[in-house]
């Protein structure tokens, strides 16, 4: 029986859940996710879960935060003066923005607080600090 190994391109269906059972993402109503194993295209724990699976096989895998999106880091939350925000921007909690660093790197952030004087920006991944559970079905090895 063929098993997924490093370098293989695989197609999988998945459903990702938080510890409380809340579904945060699923491929079930769309095309399967396609990626190459050991190419760094998905979180490390997800990749490890798929290694060794055979087409048609399903499994449930719990992925600790250190193998997912890492711990929530307070140093990735910054407070900026509203004066440095674009004049035409009306900041709202939950709004997603992109910051461009001097190097040209773009960093996605979410506004988590707004006052008359400041805006708080969080650059943590929305799933940082979370242990994740995935139901995985290997559809195909390409």
Number of domains: 2
Strands, total number: 9
SS element count, helices: 1
Overall mean pLDDT score? 95
> Order of helices and strands, N to C?
EEEHEEEEEE
Q: Structural class, from secondary structure content? A: mainly beta
Radius of gyration, in angstroms, nearest whole number: 19 Å
Low-confidence regions:
none
Helix proportion range? under 10%
Cα end-to-end separation? 15 Å
* CATH class assignment of the largest domain: Alpha Beta
Tell me the strand percentage band: 35-45%
Architecture overview:
With 142 residues, the chain is mainly beta. It has two domains: 9-70 and 127-141, Chitinase A, domain 3 (Roll), CATH 3.10.50; 74-122, Thrombin, subunit H. It is built from one helix and nine strands, in the order βββαββββββ. It has one helix at 44-50; strands at 9-17, 23-26, 33-36, 58-63, 77-81, 96-100, 106-114, 118-122, 132-141. Strands 1, 2, 3, 4 and 9 form a five-stranded antiparallel sheet that branches. The protein has a four-stranded antiparallel sheet with strand order 5-8-7-6, with no helix packed on it.
Topology:
Layout: E1 9-17, E2 23-26, E3 33-36, H1 44-50, E4 58-63, E5 77-81, E6 96-100, E7 106-114, E8 118-122, E9 132-141
In short:
With 142 residues, the protein is mainly β. 5% of the residues lie in helices and 40% in strands. The strands form two sheets. Strands 1, 2, 3, 4 and 9 form a five-stranded antiparallel sheet that branches.
């Amino acid at each position: 029986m063929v098993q997924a190994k490093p370098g293989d391109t695989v197609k999988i269906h998945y459903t990702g859940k938080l510890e409380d059972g809340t579904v945060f993402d699923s491929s079930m109503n769309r095309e399967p996710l396609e990626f190459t194993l050991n190419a760094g295209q998905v979180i490390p724990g997800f990749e490890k879960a798929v290694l060794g699976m055979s087409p048609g096989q399903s499994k449930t895998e719990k992925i600790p935060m250190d193998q997912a999106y890492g711990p929530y880091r307070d140093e990735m939350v910054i407070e900026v003066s509203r004066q440095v925000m674009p004049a035409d921007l009306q900041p709202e909690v939950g709004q997603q923005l992109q910051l461009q660093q001097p190097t040209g790197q773009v960093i996605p952030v979410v506004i988590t607080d707004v006052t008359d004087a400041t805006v708080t920006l969080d650059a943590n991944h929305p799933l940082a600090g979370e242990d994740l559970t995935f139901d995985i079905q290997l559809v195909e090895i390409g």
